[in-house]
Amino acid sequence: MKILEVRNLTVYFYTYAGVVKAVENVSFDLYRGEVLAIVGETGSGKSVTTRAITRLIQPPGKIISGSAIYRRDGEEVDLLRLPEEELRRIRGSEIAYVFQDPSSALDPLYTVGYQIGETMAAHRGGKIKQYLSEAVDLLRMVLIPDPESRSRSFPHQLSGGMKQRSVIAMAISNKPRVLIADEPTTAVDVTVQAQILHLFKQLKEQFGMSIIFITHNMGLVAEFADRVAVMYGGKIVEEAPVEELFQNPKHPYTQGLLNAVINPLNPQERLKPIPGTIPNLINPPAGCRFHPRCPYIITGKCEKEEPPLLGDRHKVACWLYP
Amino acid sequence: MVLDKAADGLLWLLVKLITLIRRDWYAKNKARVEEWRLTLYALNRSPTGVIGLFLSLGFVFVGVVGPLMAPYSYNQFLYLERPELYLTPPGEYGMPLGTDIYGRDVLSLMLYGARVSLVISVVTIALGVPLGILLGLLAGYYGGKTDEAIMRVTDIFLAFPALVLALALAATLPQRIREFLIDQPIFASFMAAIFGVSAEDAIHLAPLISIFTALIIVWWPSYARVVRGMVLVEKEKTYVEAAKALGYSTWRIMTRHILPNIMSPIIVLMTFDFATVNLLAAGLSFLGLGAQPPIVDWGSLINMGGSRFPTAWWLVFFPGVAIFLTALGWNLLGDALRDVFDPKFRRRIEFRV
Amino acid sequence: MSSFRKFLLRRLLTFIPTILGVVFITYLIAYAIPADPVRAWAGGEKAKPEVIERVKQYYYFDRPWYEQFYYFLVRLFEGTLISPRTGNNVFADVAARFSVTFQLALFSIFFSVVIGVPLGLVAAYKRDTKIDTAVRIFALIGVSMPAFLLAYLFILLFFVQFRAITLAGVPTSKVTITGVPLIDALITGDFENLAQIVARYWLPGFVLGFAGAGIIARFVRNSTVEALGADFVEYLHAKGLPVGWVRRHVFKNSLVPIVTIIGLEFGASLSGAPITETIFGLPGLGYYAVQSIYYLDFPAIIATTFVFAIIYVVTNFVVDVLYAFIDPRVRY
C-alpha cells in the first residue's frame, strides 16, 4: 500500500553563480512499512529531494514543479500544495526527520527533555511541562542510560551518539508514519552506528513506520533497506528491491558504485573507482547526465537524449535497456 | 569602471616600487597581488566604502599639506593689528570661516588642526597596535603562565575607562614631558616639525604628546585581547603543527605564518580605531587637556566656542563637522573593509566581477 | 553546588586581582608620574607650605615607598582621603555625584535600547534590503558623531530657541530612599518631581545614548541574523513548530551578545560621560573627574578612578552572570 507518491519533483537553487538544477524530474513511491534507501554521492540531490517533500526548502532554493501525494486514513493530500498551517501540522507528527548532524538539530540553550517535550506539545497541545516525563520514557526507548538526568542535560553535555539518539527520540515522539533519516549514522562512530541502526529496526517493527533512509554507504543499504533508489546528478537512475540491486545492478553508475566498495556478494580482486567527477549542476551535461563517465556509452544517443526511468519492480534509466 | 582602473593603476605603481628594491618579488607574489586586486575591486563595489575611502584619504591629504596650505600661520594673532577681527563670523572681512578670540583665521586653524589630528591618530595606532599585537601573540601562542600574566595586566588596563585613563595621564604627564623637551632640543624640534608648528612653540606640545602617550597606553590592551583570542584558534590548526614539525622557530611561526592569517580583522579594527582615536583626542582637547594656546586642534576650537555658545557658533560648528566627517570616513571604510574580507560576501562580489 | 553557582564563585574570585591591579596603577599615576607628588597632592602650584607639611604627614611621604603604598591603601579603603580642593572626604564628594551620573546613564541606556533594539530587529528581518543598509548607515553615523557637536546642536535648538531645558542644577529627592532621585520619585509616586527629573535629563541622556543606539542596533541585527541562520532553525521547522515558537528560539539565541552589549554600554555610560556632563552642566562623576584632573586634586583623582574601575568590574561581572544564565555552555 502506497503511503507516499512523489511525481516529477524539480528543485532549483538560484545562486550568484547561476541556477543550480539540484533535482530534476524525480519520481518515486514509498510503501507502507518498508525501508526505502536513497543512495548517491554528495551533490546527487538526495537531501534536497527529501526536504522538498515537506517544502523545507529555503531561498535561494525553489520547488519548481511536481507533486508529493501523501495518503493518510483514506484521504490523499498533495504536500506541495497544502496550506502552510496544515503542512506544519504534518511535519514532526506524521512525517518526521532525522538529520545527519545532531548538533545542528538541537538548540544549545534548551535541555534535551524540553526540546523533545516541545515537539509533542506543538502537535498535541498543552504545556511543554506536561510532556517531560514522556520525554524521559522516549529517551529510555532509544536506549539512553539514566534518562532522567539526561533529559535535564544540555546538548553540549552529551556525546554525538547520545545526541543523535535524542534527535531520534524527538522524531518518533508523535509516532510518525514516515520517518526520513538523512545520513543519520554518518556523524557518529561505527559502534554507535550499529546501535542506531538496530534501534531503527526495532522502531520500525514496533510502530510500523515507513522509513526513507539516505546514505552513501552501500553496506548499510544491504543491511537495512527493502528497496533502493540510486540518484545521480539530480535524477533517479535506478530503483529496485535490495537483493535485485546487489545481484543484478543494471545502470553503469550503480555497477560502478558497487565495484568501488567491498561487496561480499560479489568479491573482486581490485576496487575500481569511477573515473571523472560529479557533474556541475549549473550546466549539466546534455542527454544522460552520466554519459561523460560511462564506460558503456552509446555514442550518438547518450549525449543527446535523456533516458526515461523504465521498468516494473526493477526500474532503470539507461539507453542500454530501452 | 573608473574605480577599477584606478585600483589597477595603484597596484601597478606599488608593484613597480617594490620591484625596485627586490627584483624577484613580483614573480614570487603574483597570487598575492591578484588577491589585493580582487580586494580593491570588491571595495569598489560598495558605495559607502568608496565614500569612506575618499573621506579618509581626504583627511590624510589635508592633514599632511594643511599647515603648508594655510593662508595664515596659527600664531598670527591678527587681532593685535586689526581689532575688528576679534571673533568675526564666517564671511566677514574675507575670513571664510570666521576668526577666534585671538583674531586667527579659523580656516587656517582648521588646517593646522587637521595635521594635529592626523599625527595623533597615526602615532597612537602605529605604536599602540604593534605593542598590543605582540603581547597578544605571546599570550596566545605560549599560553599557560605567560598568558595568565599578560591577560591579568590587560584586564587591569581595560578596567580603566579609556577616557578616564587618558584624562589622568594627560594631566600628570605634561610636566615630565616638558622637562624632557627642554633637555632634548633635537627631539623637540623634530616633534615641532611633525606637528607643523614652529620650533619655539615645541614646549607647548607637551600636552599633545602626553595625549598620544596616554592613548597608546589605553589602546594596546584591546588589541592584545583580540589577537590573543585569534591566536588561540589558529594555534590548533594543522598548518601551525606542520610548521612546528618542520622545525621553524617560534618567532618565525608567529610572524610569518599565524600573523598574516589574522591580519584582516586587525586591519578592520585599525580602520575603526582611527575614527575612535580622533574622537577621543578631540574630546580630551575639548575638555582642555589637549592643545594649549597657541597650538590649536579641532577639540580646543570647540572648547573656545562652547564657552561662548551660541555667539561664536562657527567655532563649534566647523571643527565639529570636520571631526564628524573624518570619523564617518574611517568608520564607513572600516565597515566596507569588514564586508570585503568576509569570505561569504566576497564570493558574491567575485561572481559579479 | 550547581554549575551555575560554581561559575559565580569563580568569577568573583577573579575580581580581586583586577581591583588590586587597578589600585596599584592608580597609585603609580598619582605618585610616580608627577614630578613633585607632595606638592601635587597638596593642591599643586598654589599649595601653601603648611598644607604641604600636613599632606606630607598625612600621607607619610617621608617614609620609604612600601610604607607609603601601605598607608595609601589604608587611606583608600578607610575612605579617609581628603581633597585639598573641596576640603571634603573624597568619597563623600563622589557619592554625592554618583547619583547624577547614575540617572544620566539610566536615561542614556533607555534611549539606546529603545532606539537600537527595534532598528536592529527590523534590519535583521529585512536584511540585505535598503532598510538594512539605512540602519547600518545610521549606526555608523551614530558612532562617528562627536558628542559635543550633537549636544551643541540640540542646545541651540532646545535651549536657545525654545528655552525648553535648563543647563544648571539638578532635581533632588524630596524623600530620600535610595539616594537616587529618579528611583525615589518613582517609588513615592511624586510625579511633579519626576517630571522635573525627566525634563532635566532627557536631552543629555539622548545625546549620550545616541552613539550607543547605533552600536546596539548593529549588534542586535548581526546576532539576530546569525541566530536566524543557525543550523537548528531548519530542524525547528522540520519538527513542525509554529512560527512563534521558532522565533522564541531565535530570540533567545540572539540574546547573549545583545545582553552583553547593553550591559557594557551601561557600564560605559557610567564612566564615559564627562563630556556630556560638562556641556549640560550636570554635576556628575565625569565632570568631577575632569575638574579634579584639571586642578590636579590627586586624592579626588584616585577616588574617582578607583570608583570607575569598580564600576567596570561590577558591570562585567553582572554581564558574565547574565551570560551564563542564558547560555549553559558558558558555565564551564
Structural description of this entry:
The complex is a heterotrimer of chains A (322), B (353) and C (332). Chain A is of the alpha/beta class and 322 residues long. The longest helix of chain A is centred in the middle third of the chain and has 18 residues. With 353 residues, chain B is mainly alpha-helical. Chain B contains 14 helices and no strands. In chain B, helix 1 runs antiparallel to helix 3, helix 6 crosses helix 9 and helix 11 packs parallel to helix 12. In chain C, 77% of the residues lie in helices and 0% in strands. Chains in contact: A-B, A-C, B-C. At the A-B interface, loops of A face helix 14 of B.
Entry keywords:
A: seven-stranded mixed sheet; four-stranded antiparallel sheet; 10 helices; about 30% helix; C: about 325 residues; mainly alpha; 14 helices
Q: Strands, helices and their partners?
A:
The complex is a heterotrimer of chains A (322), B (353) and C (332).
Chain A: E1 2-15, E2 18-31, E3 35-39, H1 46-53, E4 61-72, E5 75-78, H2 84-90, E6 95-98, H3 112-124, H4 132-141, H5 147-151, H6 160-172, E7 178-182, H7 190-207, E8 210-215, H8 218-224, E9 227-232, E10 235-241, H9 242-247, H10 252-260, E11 315-316
Parallel strand pairs in A: 3-8, 3-9, 6-7, 7-8
Antiparallel strand pairs in A: 1-2, 1-4, 4-5, 9-10, 10-11
Helix pairs in contact in A: 3-4, 3-6, 4-6
Chain B: H1 2-21, H2 25-28, H3 30-44, H4 47-69, H5 106-142, H6 144-159, H7 162-183, H8 185-195, H9 206-235, H10 238-245, H11 250-286, H12 298-306, H13 313-341, H14 343-352
Chain C: H1 3-32, H2 37-41, H3 49-58, H4 65-78, H5 90-125, H6 130-144, H7 147-161, H8 181-188, H9 191-228, H10 231-238, H11 243-271, H12 274-280, H13 285-294, H14 298-326
Q: Give the overall pLDDT of chain B as a whole number.
A: 80
Number of helices of chain A: 10
The most extensive interface between chains reads: B-C, 49 and 49 residues
Question: If you compute it from the alpha carbons, what radius of gyration of chain B comes out, rounded to the nearest whole angstrom?
Answer: 23 Å
The average pLDDT of chain A is 85
Oligomerization state of this entry? heterotrimer
Low-pLDDT residue intervals, each spanning 5 or more residues of chain A = none
Distance between the termini of chain B: 11 Å
Strand content of chain A: 15-25%
Low-confidence stretches of chain B: none
Structural class of chain A: alpha/beta
Beta strand % of chain B: under 5%
How helical, in percent, are the residues of chain B?
Answer: over 70%
Secondary-structure-derived class of chain B = mainly alpha
Work out the number of β strands of chain B: 0
**What is the radius of gyration of chain A?**
20 Å
Element-by-element helix/strand order of chain A: EEEHEEHEHHHHEHEHEEHHE
